[in-house]
Write a structure and sequence with these properties.
The structure is a homodimer. By secondary structure, chain A is of the alpha/beta class. The first copy, chain A, has 14 helices and 9 strands. The longest helix of chain A has 20 residues, at about 175-195. Chain A is globular. At the A-B interface, helix 3, strand 3, helix 4 and strand 6 of A face helix 3, strand 3, helix 4 and strand 6 of B.
Chain lengths: ~425, ~425
């Protein structure tokens, strides 16, 4: 993959609260804010930071399943609802299951590279608490092949990753792996507690690891994962502006408040096929490899990463896909404390999907916002120290069971 | 809008049959081909013409409502199902209601402009005959704002355009307008009869205009439109390759078999608002104006156009939005025979949405395939003579009630 033909930056990140069970203000019995309210809050959040709608050339919105959760498509036409100044401007909605958010970022990146835009407003959004969890699981199963869903697990995706966990247990041992899951959960919640928009911000459990060691209850859920191994049902939106150097000037944002996109990798695997290898995320690995190569760096130069821990087992396998540990050794890497916020390689510093939340279409954008905050020193209580010799950030956003992948490498602006 | 920074072409168009009522082989009681079969047929159709999957850098798929019609999202992951050679390559799904197909084209165009790809495989697809028409109407209503749908017409979109027809009748007279609708229908069917993939290819009605003058049956459908004023429920897929000059060389396709993208216009209007003017497609008008200006031409230089006649009234208003007739005079322009295949300004020469069919997510791509065929002399029985001094083609693809718009201007390669 060749170098990007033009400099591309991201600025002005904004997250709504990731709303759902666990947040004090969440009450499923009251009417919740709708899809368009989340879109408006996030969009206005970024517009305010970039000098308003007049500075925007194009818009992109990522949403996975609004057509079922909210009976709503054609969401590009919500941009003028955010701000009348966006009337008449080009916009698009993109989708790639849980990798939707990063595909929206890629759309912005490509528009800037194409020089059709100097400033692209990118939003990711999902509002999922409109239906009960069981129906929600059926809706999210749309990320997998329809025909596969006629057999197998009721909770389709937890089932898919439970099978992966089972295979990992068998190949590499159950005890250590389960402990690594529990540690992953603890790191996620501890990070979330420091981030005011995180769904688990109010979590007060004392011994998180003990809790997360709970035995899976196979009959009522899935065989190898308990509820703490799973990201929750979340409503939320995140937004960011993808800009050129010209866009930085136009919006008056200094480079120190921006991150530069140095490289990216996108990859697809056949939706109709079983995983090539149950204990590895082979497509994730390919996307990360491409992203690092296109950025011209290696993984040890990365200061922090946001990875797609829809389930703890996905977190473990992502650590391996990043090249931080050999197959089967991701558990050790985690148990040694390396992925914790004070560890050698901090991952998901605002809580990730398990701690911050997983409003599916928003997640990829939220990852970019966290990297932006961390690399520019604006992460508030969540701030970690980025080593001077590792000034890079990396994200991995995954759609379906390792099917649609986007990895992006960033550098301090 | 500035000139495109790089030459962009389209080549190797392919259409499946537009399947549904009217086609002899259509039998809703038998199991129909699924979404993935349509995707595979269209994708392989284009791959065969461009030297195979090895020549493809990126993929884009347009689909509007597969998440409801087919319980299927994450469709980018069907590309490796088309051809194993597409495994690991970047792909994305895009959506903008019935403008979805053209947004998929725009995604390809921007990737070529961005130089992230020299060859992009673009597919549009929709398989809608999985549910009864009444449920289908509810699904397609997702192109409009959810909250609007709590009141008003059961058949939401026919209702929206029936209201527009009623307003047009009131402002400019009912009799002439209804005659123009009937002529539009006749032109559509006559064109479809010449195109083997058209849904109305087998239509044998003798006096099409007399039939189309039928009084609307308001109680069981809508007030101001009859069924011949409406595009039908269609299953189908179309595909095309968007390529650079380098891509032309790589695929070995001579320029004479390509069309060049000279300019485009994209525009959004607020989904939550009523139309600015019931008798005008103001957003369509803006998109066409931008497209023509960016191509540096005027409408009288265009040899043929593919416009979005989801309903006959949309056809009439599109003629006006193109600048071919003043407001209220589109009807005269049509009744004078100008838009017929032997007229001054042939429109929808393979039948358009009413004649060829309207597999929603595919329509925008089908429009490009028709322009490609006409401008390169490969339209078979549908071929019209393009005047030497008007070597341009134009498309207008509309999502929702004039909400999401894409217009593209092409020139013989």
């Amino acid at each position: 993959m060749k170098k990007l033909r033009r400099k591309v930056y991201m600025v002005a990140g904004y997250n709504t609260v990731s709303m759902g069970t666990g947040r004090k203000e969440f009450n499923p019995k009251k009417e919740c804010p709708g899809l368009e309210e989340y879109i408006k809050e996030a969009g206005q959040g970024t517009l305010k930071l970039i000098g308003g709608a007049k500075n925007v050339d194009e818009c992109a919105i990522g949403n996975f399943m609004g057509s079922r959760f909210n009976k709503q498509a054609n969401m590009a036409a919500f941009f003028p609802f955010i701000d009348e100044g966006l009337r008449g401007k080009p916009a698009i909605r993109v989708e790639g299951a849980c990798a939707t958010g990063a595909l929206a970022l890629m759309t912005g990146i490509k528009s800037v590279l194409a020089e059709t835009a100097e400033v692209v407003l990118v939003i990711g959004v999902e509002v999922q608490n409109t239906v009960k969890a069981m129906y929600g699981a059926d809706i999210l199963a749309g990320a997998g092949w329809f025909k596969d869903r006629k057999e197998g697990h009721a909770y389709f995706f937890p089932g898919q990753f439970s099978d992966r966990a089972g295979a990992y247990f068998e190949k590499y041992g159950r005890d250590k792996t389960r402990k690594a899951f529990a540690r992953w959960y603890r790191n996620a919640i501890e990070n979330a507690r420091l981030c005011p928009t995180a769904q688990e911000h109010h979590n007060t459990t004392k011994d998180l690891e003990a809790l997360a060691m709970m035995e899976p209850n196979g009959r009522s859920f899935v065989d190898h994962l308990n509820v703490f191994d799973c990201s929750k049902v979340s409503d939320g939106a995140s937004s960011i502006a993808v800009v050129s150097e010209e866009g930085l000037k136009r919006t008056g944002i200094p480079k120190e408040q921006a991150i530069e996109v140095l490289g990216f990798g996108q990859a697809e695997e056949d939706l109709t096929k079983k995983p090539v290898e149950q204990t590895e995320l082979t497509t994730s690995k390919l996307a990360v490899k491409t992203a690092l190569e296109s950025a011209g760096i290696i993984i040890s130069q990365v200061g922090t990463a946001e990875i797609h821990d829809c389930f703890t087992i996905a977190g473990v396998m992502a650590v391996e896909a990043l090249g931080l540990a050999d197959p089967g050794k991701g558990t050790d890497f985690i148990l040694e404390g390396n992925t914790a916020r004070d560890g050698k390689f901090p991952i998901n510093t605002t809580g990730g999907l398990i701690g911050w939340g997983h409003p599916t279409g928003a997640t990829g954008v939220h990852q970019a916002v966290t990297i932006l905050e961390q690399l520019t020193g604006k992460a508030g209580d969540s701030q970690i120290k980025i080593p001077a010799d590792r000034p890079y950030g990396l994200t991995v956003n995954m759609g379906g069971n390792d099917k649609t992948l986007v990895s992006i490498v960033y550098h301090r602006g």
